[in-house]
Amino acid sequence: MKLDRFYPIFDHSDWLRRMLPLGVKLLQLRTKDQPVAAVREQITLSRDLCRQHDAVLVVNDYWQQAIEAGCDWIHLGQEDLDDADLKAIRKAGLKLGVSTHDDDELERVLAMDPDYVALGPVYPTILKKMKWEQQGLPRVTEWKARVGDIPLVGIGGMSVERAPGVLQAGADIVSVVTDITLNADPETRVRQWIEVTR
């Protein structure tokens, strides 16, 4: 299955209700600092909304709950990998996306046979404090050469204006958070994203 090139990340199913009708076909639910019961509810609601709109849902971090809910995709950060049961994830049929930031992390992840590799931050990001400097477009090109046929996701400081350059540099998919969620008109911004990535 080919993943869409536009990959927004949202923290609540309310965002999905707004954005899926606009044509979003790939998204991540990243719920942080919530009780597990609330996370379960968000995963279930998001799963159902994505199925209604024929979209791919990627659950960030909560792999046990994703398995319970019968989801198809999980995204793990490097810290998540230390605690995740990759055998259980694979046995459940979940596809796996993983974050990478440097050579050692990429080597570690490639040994896991991931279904996509995310590289970031390509540009400076305001979303979270990062110990890594921005990677830049040359690193996107280098990473794509190294991952081969595995889809490469560019993330970090993404905007509609920067997306074409990131795709031209070799990314297969561009992932975005604040360019949508902090925008004064998120719906219009999503339409612009869809237009620039398809």
Helix content: 40-55%
User: Helix and strand succession?
Assistant: EHEHEHEHHEHEHEHEHH
Rg, rounded, reads 16 Å
Summarize the main sheet. 8 strands, parallel, barrel
Helix/strand class: alpha/beta
Low-confidence stretches: none
Query: What order do the strands of the largest sheet run in, or round the barrel if closed?
Result: 1-2-3-4-5-6-7-8
Secondary structure tally: strands: 8
**Arithmetic mean of pLDDT:** 95
Outline:
globular
Percent of sequence in beta strands: 15-25%
> How many alpha or pi helices?
10
Distance between the termini: 16 Å
Main attributes of the structure:
alpha/beta; single chain; 8 strands; about 200 residues
Secondary structure layout:
Blueprint: E1 6-10, H1 13-19, E2 26-29, H2 36-52, E3 56-60, H3 63-68, E4 73-76, H4 78-83, H5 86-91, E5 95-100, H6 103-110, E6 116-119, H7 137-147, E7 152-155, H8 163-168, E8 173-176, H9 178-181, H10 186-197
Parallel strand pairs: 1-2, 1-8, 2-3, 3-4, 4-5, 5-6, 6-7, 7-8
Question: Short summary of the structure?
Answer:
By secondary structure, the chain is α/β, with parallel strands linked by helices. It has helices at 13-19, 36-52, 63-68, 78-83, 86-91, 103-110, 137-147, 163-168, 178-181, 186-197, and strands at residues 6-10, 26-29, 56-60, 73-76, 95-100, 116-119, 152-155, 173-176.
